[in-house]
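Sample intake sheet
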Amino acid sequence: MRQMKFLLLFLFWGGVSVSAAETDSDTPAPSADETAIRAAINSYKTAFDKGDAKGVAAHWTPTGEFVTPAGETLTGHDALEKSFTEYFKTTPDVKMELDSVGIQFISPGVAVEEGVARVLIPGQEPEVTEYSAVHVKTPAGWKLDSVKETEVVVPHSHYEQLKPLEWMIGTWVDASDESTVETICRWTKNKNFITRSFKVHIEDRVEMEGTQVIGWDPDKQTIRSWLFDSEGGFGVGMWTQKENQWTIRTLQVLANGEKASGINIMTKVDENKFTFRSLGREVDGILLPGIDEITVVRQP
C-alpha cells in the first residue's frame, strides 16, 4: 500500500493523470426574444465595424441614453449619431469584440445585457470596458434604452507562459484495479494559475485528496507547482520544457517528515495522448524503483 501511494503522489507532483473523462452539460435553447436581442447585438457590432454612425445610433430608442467610459452622457439619435460620426472619422478601421455576454430578462419587454467590450484600434493596445445595456421591446424590435460603459484595468497575466499546459484543463479519471483517481483541472481568474484538485479512491473509500497549484515564477523564469495533500504532506516541482517534452523535478516533505524527490518526464504526443515516466525516485535517501513509460489516452 505504501509503495502504491508513493506512486500516486509522484504522478500528482508531476502534474499527470492517466485518462480524461469529459462531461457535457445540457444548455436550454434560448427563447425567441433572447435570439432577437442577440441578433440586434450582432447587428450593432456590424454597424460599428463598418464605421456606420447612423446605423449604430439607430439601435437606440429615440430617447436612448449612452454613458461613455469618460462619464459623458449622450441622449437621443442626433447626439449619438454626431458623436459616433466624429469618433469613426478620427479612429478609422476600428473594430469591436464582445466577451462574456449575458442576458437577463427583467420583464417580458425589458432585458439587461452585461459583458465586456474590447475596441481594437490599429497600432494601439485594445481598449477594454465593462458594460451594462438595457434593451426594451418596441414595435420596431428590441432597442437599446440605456448603455453604461466603465473602463477596465487589465490585470497582468502569465497566461502566455502557462498556455502550453492549457490542454490539461478539464476533468480527469485514472482508474486501475487498485485505485481510482479523480482530478479537476481549471484556470484561476486572469489565468495566472492552474489548479488541480484530486481525490484518490481505494476500494470504497477516499484514501487521500489534495490540491496542486501550477504557476509561472517570474523570478526563476520557469513554471513551478505546489501541492498539498490531506495527510499533511506538501511539495514543489520545477518544470522545464524542450519542444513537446516536460521535465518536472520534484521535492516533497511527507506527512511523517520524510523527504522525497524524483524526476518526472511527460511527453505530449498530441492533444489526446501523452507518455509519462519517472526516474531517480528517493525517499529519505532510499532509492525507489522508477516508473516505466506509460501511454496516457484521453477518453472520448
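Comment: Confidence is low (pLDDT under 50) at residues 1-10, 13-25. Residues 173 and 182 are 5 Å apart (CA to CA).
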